[in-house]
Amino acid sequence: MTTGIDTAALYRLQTWLSPSFPVGAYTFSHGLEYAIDGCWITDVESTERWLSDLLRFGTGYADLVFVAAGWDADDSEALALATARALAMAASKELLLESTAQGAAFVQAIAASWPTEVCDYFMGLEQKPYSVAVGAVAAAHGVPRRGTLHAFAHAFVSNLISALLRAMPLGQTDGQRLIAALEPIVDEAVVSAASTPLAEVSASTPISDIASMRHENQYTRLFRS
């Protein structure tokens, strides 16, 4: 549960992680486009298993650890360590682009609308991992750690389901069924990531990683990843 969050913090989280916030999340599929093209996911059930694995064992879980690390970082050295690990965890060129392009857009939009000193740190980086930036900005604005993790996980799931609805024959109701089914998995991932030290972050979803790598050379593409 998200407890102890005031209306101002909730307003910011809803804004920053809304589909309308200009980070370009709608342009990425996280390798799902290839998985659909290769018939690795074909319906609601196989899609639910795929997304569940990402949240439990893959990039969904790892990114939540990086959000927490960004939130916890109390100086530039800690931010640098979280940033380096987040960049190193990208399993493909496109997943790295997905993180850093959204990170750059997020920091730019925050600096223009909710400026905070931590933006200066990220502005000085060539590559800005989205997850770390979200955590650090949330902490700087006094947004609770647990609420930040939960909102980030929900946005991760929602963005991928949005991509799925555009790339395969699923309806809006199917999308809502998936969001509902993944609710306990999201909570499980948040609880696990919240207590995982940065040094112990891991991800093990090789099929998803392969889908992302193959997407780089896919003949026709709707998405950048």
Write up what this structure looks like:
This protein is 67% helix and 0% strand. The protein is mainly α. It starts with 6 loop residues before the first helix and ends in a 10-residue tail after the last helix. The chain has helices spanning 7-16, 32-37, 44-57, 59-72, 76-88, 93-113, 118-123, 130-140, 145-167, 172-194, 206-215. It is globular.
Outline the fold blueprint:
Blueprint (H helix, E strand, L loop, with lengths): L6 H10 L15 H6 L6 H14 L1 H14 L3 H13 L4 H21 L4 H6 L6 H11 L4 H23 L4 H23 L11 H10 L10
Helix pairs in contact: 3-4, 3-10, 4-5, 4-8, 4-9, 4-10, 6-8, 8-9, 9-10
Task: Note the main attributes of this structure.
mainly alpha; globular; 67% helix; single chain; 0% strand
